[in-house]
Amino acid sequence: MLSFGVVAQASSTVFVSTPAFLIPLLHTERGLSLGEAGLLASAPTLGLVITLIGWGALSDRIGERRVIASGLAITALAAFAAMFVSDYIGLGALFLIGGMASASPNAASGRVVIGWFPKERRGLAMGIRQMCQPLGVAVAALTIPQLAASGGIALALVVPAVLCAVSAVLCAIGIVDPPRPPRRAADGDGAHPLAVWRPYRETSLLWRIHGVSMLLVVPQFTLSTFGLVWLVTQLQFSSLAAGIVIGASQFAGAIGRIGVGVLSDRVGSHLRPLRWVSLAAVAVMLLMAAAASLGMVWAAVILIVAAIVTVADNGLAYTSVAEIAGPFWSGRALGAQNTGQFLAASVVGPAVGGLITLIGYPFAFAAVALCPAIAVPLVPHDKELAVVTH
User: Fold this and answer.
1) Pick from 120, 146, 177: which residue ends a domain?
2) Total structural domains in the chain?
3) How far apart are the C-alpha atoms of 216 and 140, rounded to whole Å?
4) DSSP labels for 95-146?
5) Domain of 326?
6) Same domain, 88 and 209
7) Contact predicate 212/342, CB 8 Å
8) In a shared domain, residues 158 and 199
9) How many Cβ atoms from other residues are within 10 Å of residue 235's Cβ?
10) Global confidence as pTM
11) Do residues 212 and 359 share a domain?
């Protein structure tokens, strides 16, 4: 089930990432401005944000297998159709539709993993599952630019189309929905206690974890968005050397997600490591500010360490949300979790970019450190979970 969840999420990520790697072709050869090409590239992400909660609610109702398989199938169809579209409005519409469908694994594959792993092993399992997003981006980065350069947009779209189609079939055949309690009580008299649990009304825990995750997205996307240009323009790294550093930081961050998942299993808590990661994020962003100010020769090492720390929270928060929400609400709660993160990420580019322009990299990195600092007291304590009866 973990393998199917990773394959599903990675395949949908390839589709969502593909338009961004078409920007050089669209801009230099097709004559689109960077703004127009960027708008086209953002269509799948916009579609994904629109439907995350809806797919989560559907998985709560009909189960994970049908949601994941149908969403991937629609994504594959959108990719295949886009291969035969010549106008950019039609292409953008299909990217939007495919993005809307590609949200299904985001909302449901985590439920599959959590449902089939016991609590003491979920940290490791979710750490592995959270690797699928950088894995999907890596697949797109290695294939899409080369195929687009040799055969245009149609050839490049073969990759996400085939991957999503194959994944849809595999998931339809192989995924088994994890067991969940019946909606009716065992004696048939009234609803099951967990079916009437309303986590957003009865506790503030989910709201707080959503807020923490949105705050921790800011340093994560600050580094992924501006790390390369900082190394090149401020520290005089060559484009090749800077690319290697960014690539190494992404790979290290993916491995770090597994490591922090194992740590959470060892300490028997996802929330304590989440607080530790928040504190560490404050420290690494202040180190980034110092490196930017002093022009440290080992700035690349600091950037890699910072990348590991700032992505380590994802699996911890994701697992905590699912456990608190319970089996009848986890789909919607996980959809809300991802929606908040994507919305926060969409603000980072213009906001931090403007901040860098206004006050420079050192002070901008230091200002970003305020976000994880605010997140630290918001992280719930383990004793607060006593209100969650399930």
Assistant:
1) 177
2) 2
3) 25
4) HHHHHHHHHHHHHHHHHHHHHHS-GGGHHHHHHHHTTHHHHHHHHHHHHHHH
5) 194-387
6) no
7) no
8) no
9) 19
10) 0.74
11) yes
Q: Is residue 248 part of a domain?
A: yes
* Residue 305 belongs to a domain: yes
How far CA 283 is from CA of 229, 302, 320, in Å, comes to: 22, 11, 24
The answer to whether residues 262 and 123 touch, using CB atoms and an 8 Å cutoff, is: yes
Instruction: Mark whether 224 and 277 lie in a shared domain.
Output: yes
Which CATH number fits the domain that encloses residue 374?
1.20.1250.20
Cβ–Cβ under 8 Å, residues 168 and 93: no
Long-range own/partner contacts, residues 119-124 (CB < 8 A, 24 or more apart): 119/323, 120/265, 120/268, 121/265, 122/261, 122/265, 122/270, 122/319, 122/323, 123/260, 123/261, 123/262, 123/263, 123/264, 123/265, 123/270, 123/315, 123/316, 123/319, 124/258, 124/261, 124/262, 124/265
Q: How far apart are CA 55 and CA 48, in angstroms?
A: 10
Q: Is residue 182 part of a domain?
A: no
pLDDT in single tens digits along all 390 residues of the chain: 888 988 998 999 899 888 877 877 877 677 777 667 777 877 888 888 889 888 888 887 888 899 999 999 999 999 999 999 888 899 999 999 999 999 898 878 777 877 888 877 877 887 788 777 777 877 887 788 888 888 888 999 999 999 999 999 999 999 898 877 665 554 455 555 555 667 788 788 889 999 999 999 899 888 877 777 788 778 877 767 776 777 777 778 878 888 888 888 888 888 899 999 999 999 999 999 998 888 766 788 888 899 889 888 888 888 888 788 877 777 788 888 888 888 887 787 778 888 888 888 899 999 999 999 999 999 998 777 766 655
Q: Is residue 184 part of a domain?
A: no
